[in-house]
Amino acid sequence: MEDIEDLLVGNGAGVPPGFRLPVSTAVGVNPKQRKKNGVTKLTVVQDSPAPKIPGTQTIYIKTFGCSHNQSDSEYMAGQLSAFGYALSDNPDEADLWMINTCTVKSPSQSAMDTIISKGRSAKKPLVVAGCVPQGSRNLKELEGVSIVGVQQIDRVVEVVEETLKGHEVRLLTRKTLPALDLPKVRKNKFVEILPINVGCLGACTYCKTKHARGHLGSYTVDSLVGRVKNVIADGVREIWLSSEDTGAYGRDIGVNLPILLNAIVAELPLNGSTMLRIGMTNPPYILEHLKEIADVLCHPCVYSFLHVPVQSGSDSILSAMNREYTVGEFRKVVDTLMELVPGMQIATDIICGFPGETDEDFAQTVDLIKDYKLAQVHISQFYPRPGTPAARMKKVPSNVVKQRSRELTAVFESFTPYTGVEGKVERIWITDIASDGIHLVGHTKGYIQVLVIGPESMMGSSAMVKITSVGRWSVFGEVIEILCQNNEDVPSHRSFDERCSPCALSEEACACSKEQEPCSATSDCCNQSPTREATTLLKNDPNQDDHSSRNLIGWFLRNRKNQSSKKMDLTSSESKEKQIQDLSHRSAWSLVDIALLSGILLSLFTIVALFLKLGSRSSSSK
């Protein structure tokens, strides 16, 4: 199958990102030659039946993998929606399925195989995007389906249109990055996932992602700052910086991560309504910038949280992985950030059973996890990925790998990261609804997941909450005060050095103030929204009875809100008191309610007076 680039007229030169070429010239159909009785015959492939008008069909999008993949799906959805296509979460009602894939682990690729098989059985046209086709374009499972590469997401409309016409197309080769200002449909309207670069500088022996995302390619500081300004104006409340390695940002264009972070922070609203979350970074590329990054993490509009994967507690295994750092350097990163950033929380990753891992190597990993007792550790078994050096190494027996994974998981789950948090008052930023459909989900500055009861109108706001109880994966809070619901043209941080001067974000001291008391809270899952684990917690929580009445009230408040068009104005102290009263399960009359009732009573009084007057006239005339 030819790359669509070879079939485009003029190779698409001069075509701006996101521009749709005329479909008549987008893809050519080549005639096929057949031999019969030794005679070659030329057979022209008949055109498929005329499809519906382009842009009128329904598209189902399924996404696997990291936040970068999620951002790519949101960009593709935005372009399809802009050209008229409907988006649906129901695969059965869709005219085409788009599958955005992940190649990090075998299970995610197996899930891709399953959904492709289901799509074929349902006779759905298929488009496969993401890291799997980009890194392994000749997979048997990809035969007969269209492909769009990771750097070709701005051409998704072309691929979809041609696929709906019955053509198999592939769009993979690209030397420039997709534009950041493409249309986008966010999965969560309050969260912008902002890719700052693609690819990486590493060469880990187990990693397949490098085959797909390639070498490091960074967006310019100006383009990223421009995007930040636009999404803040759109009402976004969290900006997630995402890439395969955030710490490596800018090394290909002569800048670095601290330069970018300072430029972005300068655009964040002074009232703290929009928060920044820095994405995953490997230890080698932040060692030289630890002090600068610590300064940024101290900023009141930046979550005091960082994901730094270590993968193993053994230097010999790290060497076999070609991770380019030692356990000691990982410890330096963690120790420095925890010392310089009050309430700093670190998440990390561990691979159990990497080829050559001995019992002693694994014991060193367990000791490392015990030393820090991090609230978030992502533990996975080693999966050999085809085409990687590690796939050719001698494997650890699968039963040993599984046993080590279970043992380390048991150690991690024995930690009680939220001990001492109950009773504290924290500021949280609310951006989601828990899977139980009752609680709203917020995060503290240390990115602890806090579940609270409240109406959906609180989404996108920040609030002061009192932690009422704790579980293993989340904590529960009670709303005390709503701090800010809208940006309302709040000025941004003009200078990073002024970040502490307002210090009016809440009653607590600035996170970077020298007088700041260290926070004893620990962080919860950064990449996972509150969900099955949180729901299980609700079922098994010893304080469940204490929450049951609040859950019922929360359900009632949410349904009351859905049946009413009332909007809560939280800009005055009176309305804040009203919000707290609503959360305390009391009702109150608003000014609008009183005005409406007065109008109704006045109308009734007028009607009665008219009837009496008419009655008196009729009696006098007699």
Automatic annotation (TrEMBL):
Q: Which residues form the TRAM domain?
A: 419-481
Q: Which organism is it from?
A: Solanum stoloniferum
Tell me the protein's name.
Answer: Threonylcarbamoyladenosine tRNA methylthiotransferase
| Cofactor(s) of this protein | [4Fe-4S] cluster
Task: Look at the named UniProt entry and state the broad enzyme category this protein falls under.
Answer: transferase
> SUPFAM superfamilies this protein is in?
Radical SAM enzymes (SSF102114)
- Sum up the protein's function in the record's words: Catalyzes the methylthiolation of N6-threonylcarbamoyladenosine (t(6)A), leading to the formation of 2-methylthio-N6-threonylcarbamoyladenosine (ms(2)t(6)A) at position 37 in tRNAs that read codons beginning with adenine.
Q: What is its EC number?
A: 2.8.4.5
The record's GO molecular-function terms, alphabetically, read: 4 iron, 4 sulfur cluster binding; metal ion binding; tRNA (N(6)-L-threonylcarbamoyladenosine(37)-C(2))-methylthiotransferase activity
